[in-house]
Amino acid sequence: MSKEIKSVEYGLEKIFEGAEDFLPLLGTDYIEFYVGNAKQAAHYYKTAFGFQSFAYRGLETGSKDTVSYVLKQDKIRLVLTSPLNSKSPINDHIVKHGDGVKVIALWVEDARAAYEETTKRGAKSFMEPTVDKDDHGEVVRSGIYTYGETVHMFVERKNYNGKFLPGFKEWNSDYNPAPTGFKFVDHMVGNVGWGEMNTWVKWYEDVMGFVNFLSFDDKQITTEYSALMSKVMCNGNGRIKFPINEPAKGVKKSQIEEYLDFYEGPGVQHIAVATDDIIKTVADLRSRGVEFLPPPPQAYYDDIPRRLGDHMKIMKEDIKELQKLSILVDADEEGYLLQIFTKPVQDRPTLFFEIIQRMGAKGFGAGNFKALFESIEREQAQRGTL
Ligand code: FE2
Question: Which keywords does UniProt give here (predicted)?
């Protein structure tokens, strides 16, 4: 990482000192996927990733056009939604993009104010503030478009004590595979088109009040074949981090370009989930059939003590164990981090997951980018899309 990145990263608190956060975000509320078959997708996320049955809305609850399964693991809530007939506009989304993330919902104190502040600053409306009620109270939601057809929904639930949202019933299942140690969403990454990264960086700054606290250019993220550029956007309290990638010119096709081709536009590239024990989590996920990117070469693991330097003294994990599971390691001034990336979780090479354990480090694994991208390129070569 360059000097500039470090000073910006560690000056985050200073950036916000005295500044008014016009869009206070309490956390990620839920992530909604539009999928072709929500029932089967729910089974996959329970079986493979250890999500728990949480809430349901469908024909049985009076929802005639769509069905949604809500899954939970610690603080993470996934909503899997499918259309129930050909008239639903969700069909168009699925035809164009395949299964993917439609909504990144953000938990707010005041969904009306969030809508007003962001649309005033230029956001395109997805849903005007809407109140849903049931016996447990009311939830106010509003939504704006971000990149592509992706949406940020603002969720105000301070007057609600139901399970999830009005209209959903509790989902009790007889099939309950154990959790795998996912704790919360660490960050969510968006891929945008050629030359669009700075447009969206500015959008997050102007419309959402975020700051750009880390940047990687195509000289830092490059391999023999392809390159990308990335900027990490972060909200006022640091809880929400959205890195934004754009492809960069290389000898062959960038993985970002491959994503854009198959998703047919910008969208969410990966969801990074935090765990306290990545060795246990990854061993568990592997035993459940989750596929990860192939391991970097031996030399990568041989080089870890040099790359970690002093952090080796605090490192509890055995490098051999990490290598056995293909877990990657990176470090910055404040500590180290462990991470691994799944293969895409649908047939189109689009969305995937990252599992991350932070041991003080605040970065995103820049030191791993080269090894990681070479691994992705081997996969791309097999798909014939490099
Ligand atoms: Fe990531």
Answer: Dioxygenase, Iron, Metal-binding, Oxidoreductase, Pyruvate, Repeat
